[in-house]
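Model: Ready when you are.
Researcher: Fold this.
Model:
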Amino acid sequence: MSYLLHAKSMKYIVPLLSASLLALAGCNKAPDGTASNASTTIGVEIDDSVITTKVKTALMSDDIVKGMDVKIETRKGEVLLSGFADNQAQIDHSAAVAMAIEGVKKVDNKLTLKEGKQTVGNKIDDSVITAGIKTAMLQDTQMKSMDVAVVTRKGEVQLSGFVDSELQAAHAIEVAKSVSGVQSVINNLKVKN
């Protein structure tokens, strides 16, 4: 029975996986439809996704850093960590955990120390700000918001991820600043190489 169930599920999984891979092939396009100057292959993008998942899993299961809100982006084996930490030991340990993952070539640690206590009201306000920024980026024709991670703490916004150009990074900062409640924006965006 289990073999039959497995065979039936494979009938759906293979076409779904194929469609997903074809969809990823379009991810190398710049906003104007031309190929990105820093393109990667589908294989590299899949490898990066696997690395990101392994880093997330390792951080979530690590007793020193498991409750932190860390955003993880990977491009060509380079891992970008951003978010907020309680102390410097968590920041340093997060980088060490990420670097220990197979396939990681470099870790760019942009974690920032938290300042002061955060109230429930702050957390709700920060969630609204983060959602507002993500919505603004989705609606903006110059942005590929899926490539930009947003973390907010007490109105301080961190943008991280990989963008096509310095111009796109500057535009992302302007989009974030335009959202109500944003006190400041930390730019942790990196231009794809």
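Researcher: Now this one.
Model:
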Amino acid sequence: MQNIEYPYMPEGHHLQYASVNNPFMQEAARAREECAGDPLYPVGIVLVKDGEVIARAGNGFNKGPGEIHVCPRVVLDCPSGTGYDLCALHDAPGHSERMVLAQAKEAGIDVTGADAYMYGHWWACEPCWTALLEAGIRDLYVTDDAHERFSRDNVYGETLTPSIKTVSLEGFEGELLSEIVREVGVLGLQVVEQDADAHCVLTAQGAQCLLAGEPVYTVEQTEEMVKHLSNVLKQL
């Protein structure tokens, strides 16, 4: 067992490790690409029994890729493992472990004695561990370098990159405007006056971000508003 301090580990249990080249871990990686509905921290998982994959799923409620989602936990820089109540997409019921059990149950598959292979994260939260153990899952495998490969900094370094290229700003003035322009530049975005991919406007409630004219997130007016606005734009 590797000497890693995990945020949670049930008494009497520990993670198992497999190479990224392990065929079942490769199947979990494929599930991550095809099934995960969380664009920021995608996780895939498969259940293996008698040498065969019997169920597969992804986190983000198994919705699959393609949806833009602004996570309040990311906006507010919540520490790992905290703030799940702020974001329904990241809440425990939508985690990959719970999703794959739900998929198996829906298909009438007996998972007793199966192993779980998870690709995309380095630990499991208490509700997910509990669900796996109660379902009779034997072992939970992660990659042998998961604590590094899927650390928050490494994952967000890949996923927190804007897909938008331009942004327009309305209602911001003075030093606040200058700060936002600097942050936008750091993100590699260009400030334009019209036909922008995203539009940010200062309202009485805070900085509202819109895509195609539809509001997607409003950042409250606090001392951290510029930083939080940058965290929103990273997710667009």
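Researcher: Key takeaway?
Model: The mean pLDDT is 94.
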